[in-house]
């Protein structure tokens, strides 16, 4: 009888777990990050709706996803191209688009926001969606630097709000930072961890602190490299080479700054400096400010610390 009872409880637990699984995902933001998250979710069998403000943006997003999936299929099904085509069509079938976030979130399990890094814009978005989303729907932000609790404050579902920080390019990068605020319920946090695993990613648990884990270490490192250069203690070329050959990094800090975007790094460090002005690691960089003011933002503008063709 005890064995039967244990089996019954285990069965109920397993059934509840399956019912709680995230199946339908709404991604807000059709940029590179949003499209990447949508691709990975669709590839792993989730029903995905990618949302943005215009059909033109969404058409470009779908094209990016389609081209990326084709590259995957070409490698994965090199000897069976017909299976590759079936794989492509299956993934694309799992992903639809919409310009109407309000109607989409009424029947979704998870909303992942991947829009501009602006606290007010994110708060306004989640505040409006909170009024129409289902009671069970979990909200998550892909922010790389803003406090999750501050974003969540515009909603009434603080216990069903967390962070899912993916890394670019999403289909290739295995890591996902899963962020738990003081108000995030354990049930919500566990669901976000399991969702990350279901995507084939490796999640790490993070507290809601500036930059979480990766950017909290990475951004001050990059800015300190700029300060080293500003003091005349090393050329950008030598600093990059030293970190690649001496520390085993695939890119030097200046190469990475250009890849990430100088405006993005400036935005992050300025935000942290405003929150904690006495922290020397968050002090602004005059050289970084100068380059951003000149519109030299890195690879995306053709010039940053280096010139790019």
How does this model look, in words?
The protein has 13 helices and eight strands. The protein is of the alpha/beta class and 309 residues long. An eight-stranded mixed beta sheet has the order 3-2-1-4-5-6-7-8. Strand 7 (175-180), helix 8 and strand 8 (202-207) form a beta-alpha-beta unit. The radius of gyration is 21 Å and the shape is globular. The protein starts with a helix and ends in a 16-residue tail after the last helix. Residues 8-19 have low confidence and may be disordered.
Give the amount of beta strand, in percent. Answer: 5-15%
Q: Kindly, what is the distance between the CA atoms of the first and last residues, rounded to a whole number of angstroms?
A: 74 Å
Q: Sketch the topology as an H/E string, one letter per element.
A: HEHEHHEHEHEHEEHEHHHHH
Main sheet summary: 8 strands, mixed
Silhouette = globular
Low-confidence stretches: 8-19
Helix % is 40-55%
Which structural class should the secondary elements be placed in?
Answer: alpha/beta
Overall pLDDT level: 93
Annotation field: number of helices: 13
Sheet with the most strands: spatial strand order: 3-2-1-4-5-6-7-8
Rg of Cα set: 21 Å
Total number of beta strands: 8
Give the topology, please.
Layout: H1 2-20, E1 24-28, H2 32-43, E2 47-51, H3 55-76, H4 81-93, E3 95-98, H5 101-104, E4 110-113, H6 119-130, E5 138-141, H7 148-152, E6 161-166, E7 175-180, H8 186-198, E8 202-207, H9 214-230, H10 236-246, H11 253-260, H12 262-275, H13 286-293
Parallel strand pairs: 1-2, 1-4, 2-3, 4-5, 5-6, 7-8
Antiparallel strand pairs: 6-7
């Amino acid at each position: 009888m005890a064995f039967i009872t244990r089996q019954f409880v285990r069965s109920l637990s397993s059934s509840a777990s399956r019912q709680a699984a995230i199946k339908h995902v709404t991604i807000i933001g059709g940029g590179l990050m949003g499209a990447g998250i949508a691709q990975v979710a669709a590839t792993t069998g989730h029903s995905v709706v990618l949302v943005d403000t215009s059909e033109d943006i969404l058409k470009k997003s779908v094209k990016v996803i389609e081209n990326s999936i084709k590259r995957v299929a070409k490698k994965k099904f090199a000897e069976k191209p017909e299976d590759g085509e079936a794989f492509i069509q299956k993934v694309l079938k799992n992903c639809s688009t919409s310009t109407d976030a309000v109607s989409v979130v009424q029947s979704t399990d998870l909303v992942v926001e991947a829009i501009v890094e602006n606290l007010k814009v994110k708060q306004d978005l989640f505040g409006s969606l909170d009024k129409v989303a289902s009671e069970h729907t979990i909200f998550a932000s892909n922010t790389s630097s803003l406090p999750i609790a501050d974003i969540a404050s515009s909603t009434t579902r603080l216990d069903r709000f967390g962070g899912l920080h993916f890394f670019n390019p999403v289909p290739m990068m295995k890591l996902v930072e899963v962020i738990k605020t003081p108000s995030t319920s354990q049930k919500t946090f566990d669901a976000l961890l399991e969702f990350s695993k279901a995507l084939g990613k490796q999640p790490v648990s993070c507290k809601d602190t500036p930059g979480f884990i990766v950017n909290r270490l990475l951004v001050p490192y990059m800015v300190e490299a700029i300060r080293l250069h500003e003091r005349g203690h090393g050329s950008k070329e030598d600093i990059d080479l030293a970190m690649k050959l001496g520390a085993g990094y695939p890119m030097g800090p200046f190469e990475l700054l250009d890849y990430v975007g100088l405006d993005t790094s400036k935005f992050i460090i300025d935000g942290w400096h405003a929150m904690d002005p006495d922290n020397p690691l968050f002090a602004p960089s005059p050289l970084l400010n100068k380059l951003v003011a000149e519109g030299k933002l890195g690879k995306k503008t053709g010039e940053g610390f280096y010139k790019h063709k």
